[in-house]
Amino acid sequence: MILETSTFLATILVLITSVLFLFKLANPAVFVDWSEEIVVVTGGSQGVGLAIVKRLLTKYKPKHVIILSIAPLTENFDSEKVTYFPCDVSDYIAVKKIGDRINEKIGVPTMLINNAGILGGKKFLDLEPSVIERVINVNLLGTMWTTKVFLPQMIESNHGHILNVSSLLGIGGIAGVAEYCASKFGVSGFTESMIQETKHTNVKFSGIYPGLISTDLFRGVKYRFDLFPTLSPEEVAEEILNILTNGRSAEVVIPWTANIGRAMKLVPVGVQNIIKDAAGANNSMNTYIPPDNKS
Fold first, then answer.
1. Peptide bond preceding 291 in cis form (omega within 30 of 0)
2. DSSP 8-state assignment for residue 217
3. 60, 92, 180, 288: which one is catalytic?
4. What SUPFAM superfamilies does UniProt report for this protein, alphabetically (predicted)?
């Protein structure tokens, strides 16, 4: 019995290693010279976005960082390295106009981090239609509009990387965040499709699926059991920049133990209900404290 188990585990390990090797062959890395990269960060004036900007400037030192956000900057940055544009990413015309200004005044962006996101924070039937629409427009359409504006020149130069910030709630849904889950499921599907559409180019697409992050977006949210550690904005920012540095398309769940969320899809809905109720996931939004919803 022990021998059979060992053989099975060894076979699984060989298969996983082979798949990873084939993935590397099919998805070759692109060399990243950060000193030549122009990076756009949406929602970059607060939370994870701000942590990304700070980490870029202190460790990676790209050619230029561009912040797109409707929330005002609360930090003073070197104006020669950072440019802030007030921009509602849910408005395609506004994004297009800003994109033209960036190309003219700064240069063609080579990296785009779609981080902007908002949350309704109530049960679906308690949400105003305008709030539902706003969440979908910012989280999903905002990601698509920035991609629509900045991707063509990346394709033309055959160089670039777009990373979309999704969520564990873009893998599995819980009560109280239906509109947010819908938007992040959309981001997940969009990312997977764009990986396929650009796989024969040197433009890379990636998605990151963080668990609970200690930002104002989910302030007050509590689970009955801490199944996964709460992430700091700095931890998420560093993982995002690691993905970009690696120069490959990737889909990364953090913390890695949260991949159990993907495994949940393999069990019946009834079993998922029991697990989510036992973990207190469906009551986690009861203590939610809403932010001002600017990103």
1. no
2. G
3. 180
4. NAD(P)-binding Rossmann-fold domains
